[in-house]
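During the no-cost extension, the postdoctoral fellow (Dr. R.K.) reprocessed legacy sequence entries with the updated structure-token encoder. One reprocessed record is reproduced below for audit purposes.
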Amino acid sequence: MSWHLEPLVGFDLETTGTEPREARIVTAAIVELRGADVVGLRSWLADPGIRIPAQASAVHGISSERAAAEGRPAAEVADEIAETLAGHWRRGVPVIAYNAAFDLTLLAAELRRHQLPSLSDRLDGAAIGPVVDPYTIDRSVDRYRKGKRTLEAVCAEYGVVLESAHDAGADALAAARVAVAIAERHPQVARFEPAELHERQIHWYAEWAADFQQFLRRKGTTDAVIDGSWPLRELAAPARG
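Re-encoded structure tokens follow.
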């Protein structure tokens, strides 16, 4: 049976910013699916420990005041998210995240910030995965389609209902359903085993990054550098005391 017909997990973070090594978790959700049915949902609201910029609050609707009053300590939230994801990976369940390199890098940075075990540590030193990233897959299998590749746009392309964009639970569920829709439209994606699909995405993301970097440099941004690492970007080396 193809991976997209097996149990799946959707994952999403809403955050304080757009730089994953610096931004903090505000909300998070992990959705479990079996077929079309949602069979589990965990969600979190964190106190990120810093003010949430107005631009970020305008996106996800969480103010600094609400996060401080209702949110749980950031370290507890990051630890629980990481342990939940690791538990699914231990069972071989694919974790689906739209633009996974952002969410997983941000989570990894939070774990380091709070001196918690890394994702790999929780897997006894093994690499994380399998990860399924509809953003990366869609760009590869439908490379020349015009238009945006936001989650909202890709949901519209594949006929997936996105109930409330930038709500972590809604985005996590939509990402999972988009992944299933891509596999149904593109049988070559459905035929991969999850581990092989994970490896393919490493190469697809690197190819896209190299092409985009070359495009930017041709257009005049001669020093443009696009990180081609997936699903985790390298974190800065820890400061030495």
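The CA atoms of residues 216 and 222 lie 7 Å apart. Strands lie at 8-15, 25-34, 37-47, 72-73, 95-96, 131-132. The remaining legacy entries will be reprocessed before the final report is submitted.
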